[in-house]
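Researcher: Here's the sequence for the chain we discussed earlier.
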Amino acid sequence: MTMQPQLWGGLECTVNRVHDRYQDQVRATGHQDRAEDLDRLAMLGIRAIRYPVLWERVSPRHPDERDWQWTDERLGRLRDLDIRVIAGLVHHGSGPAYSGLLEEGFAAGLARHAGAAAERYPWIADWTPVNEPLTTARFSALYGHWYPHHRSEPSFWLALLNQIDAVRLSMQAIRRVNPAARLIQTDDLGRSYATASLREQAGFDNLRRWASWDLLCGMMTREHPLWERLSGFGFQDRLRAIADDPCPPDIIGINHYLTSDRFLDHRLHRYPAHSHGGSDTQLYADVEAIRVLEPPPQGLEGALREAWTRYGRPLAVTEVHNGCTREEQLRWIAQAWDVASRLCAEGIKVEAVTLWSLLGSSGWNSLLTQPGHYEPGLWDVSSGTPRATALLPLAQALARGGERPMLADGAGWWQRPVRIVHPGVARPASMKAHLAGRSHNSAARPCSDHLSSVRPLLICGATGTLGRAMARACALRNIPFILTSRAELDLTAPETVAAALDRIAPWAVVNAAGWVRVDEAETARDACLSANARGAVALAKACGDRGVASLSFSSDLVFDGKKGAPYVEDDPVAPRNCYGLSKAEMEEGIAALGAPHPSGRHLIIRTAAFFSPHDDHNFAVAVVRSLRRGETILAAEDLIVTPTYVPHLVATSLDLLIDGEAGPWHLTNGEALSWADFARRIAMSCGCDPSRIRGVPHRTLGWTAERPANAALASRRGAPLHSLAMAIDHFAAHLPGEMIRQAA
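Model: Thanks. This is the structure I predict for it:
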């Protein structure tokens, strides 16, 4: 019978040191104080979990002072849940403050901790004493990102050898307690590609990537291509000692990311400055191979095949994670599972695929050198309370052989033309390989009834800012969609709504249509209420009746501005104008619908003051145009809003829709300020003179509709979008020249 991979899970549990500051991912995700997270894992169907028993956490001050309380509770619960533990002892760390990667006592110190852990938990059979030793040595001793912040090759090899000795000695200590204990040794595995002038550098990189496993398997002998290089740094005796007493992994744990395969190019002018680097003898750009090579690099399947050929030992994919939009996360996991299953069918022993970052991770965009972005996993913990994402039903489907979420089956960005962001480079390959590579690169485009059998997303509002932005995002993300105009689906004509839903049969509907002119609504009350309230509720009801999810957009103008603090989702509404009333009535009407079908969930996004470089009709674009014409701008200084960048808004809205979320949700870029200050921030970022912006009372601007004084939005349900500073910078970088030159 063909072996199938098991489904494992893992918590991002890095404890790394930057100078004298430690960063702990278990604390960053809140898992430190949420024992109930473990009960959530039981619904996944995972067979094992990579879990921290970290040296830095158990004995932070002195090797003889051990605090097992937290670990006892968590490991005991996992044992009760019948989830096998793969215990990690150092995860990208350098040990407690009394140790370090370059210290002589590092290996013996970790082994002492390992022995104590094995004695306390003799039932644990699987261990990873050091996670990714090669990667940690690179980041800590070659690139200088983490403590001890060295930048030299001798320090790199010393850090790696100390970690390898720590693995060997730790497994000896563990096996004195449990002779059957298994070593699951992880490391990041990618391949380097290069231009011809950098072939020697790529060749060296492709040798070095195996160093952790080669050392543990006793392969680093005189015949090894790296022997002379390491001996030249004085490590000959260390190499002999390791080769004479190896510790071969029972399972080779492959961590492979979309960034793992690299391309080295001596033509620096083709790439941004942040990619420039080099060796002692050559300067070159180092970029993701997936972003430049045609056909694409070998990817996960190639990495697994190479590892099997080299070692002939059981493999496991020990981290599967993609920090991207939700459907791309789904696709990466599904494809990793399919690769592992296919290799198993060929007789290659891939024991497991590990869902990594079950609770997400924080700060990896800065390589954990400073606080950074949070990336959700199977749960999103940005609000402090875990919220299941669409990855959870996918995990359950993989574990139990059920039906996968629909969007898990599409081609990922790494298989589409959008992946190429640098001048393309042809990768030497057979014609068959080139054709195979192209077969996955179908262009993303709007779908129609006859173009795709996949149920599309229906987007109402072809002429509006949000409708066009939603369509743009779906095209980029390879989400089949149909964008309808009022002629095809009129919210005020129920018969067109029903006909469109029955004809298109979407999996969800985004209502980005409706009345948007706030002041004109005061004199066109019935038209505004008809489109924004009655029509929107009718659309949501028609969706619910058919088991179709819906997404509607509301506004900060549903509030009266008297709270004195940012409004959250459960604050009572009290609109001051007709437009706000229309949105409040829409919310009330949709809330009253309930969900007659489990899939007919209704999500309502409240947002505010949105701006975009792709739309002529928004405040930020108007500010730049006027300033470029030399005009003075009058902007309200007594109204507080939370501006929202449309590309960020639609990206997160789509993620929430895919996750199956419902009810009101506030999405903004998280910073409250006056319209006048917002205009000044836009001006400075776009190279204009902010002194030409005059803050004035809003009543002097001739507006008809009343506005709330402070309608700032915050959220109890999740973190805000990216920072407003990042949003404004992105706006400035993507503002088309012709847009700001019009009417100049």
